[in-house]
Amino acid sequence: MIKPLTCPICDKPLPPQMTQDSGVFPFCSSRCKNVDLFRWSDGKYAIVEDLAQRPDILQEILEDDLFTQSNEEEDIY
């Protein structure tokens, strides 16, 4: 049996007519969507990944940070 999709905030089943085109998908309501947004902005969610396992991403972050710092220093002078 296929389990129905549920709201990640309140676990209510989503109506069958709910699609990705809906303004609140994958949530059941705008209230749940706003609760999720608040949790992200409050720092309750985090994407944690060991950067030592991803040297490609670490190098990209370092290059972007160095580039940003050098541009900021040029703007000062």
Topology:
Layout: H1 30-41, H2 55-76
Produce a short descriptive summary.
The chain has 77 residues and is mainly α. It has two domains: 46 residues; 29 residues. It has two helices and no strands.
Any overview of this molecule?
The chain has 77 residues and is mainly alpha-helical. The chain folds into two domains: 1-46; 49-77. The protein has helices at residues 30-41, 55-76. The model has no long low-confidence stretch (mean pLDDT 81).
List keywords for this structure.
77 residues, mainly alpha, 2 domains, 2 helices
Instruction: Count up the helices.
Output: 2
The end-to-end span amounts to 66 Å
* Share of residues in helices: 40-55%
The pLDDT mean sits at: 81
List SSEs in N-to-C order: HH
Number of DSSP strand runs: 0
Low-confidence stretches: none
Structural domain tally:
2
Give the overall shape, derived from the CA principal axes.
elongated
Strand content: under 5%
Radius of gyration computed on alpha carbons: 20 Å
The description of the largest β-sheet is: none
Class derived from helix and strand content: mainly alpha
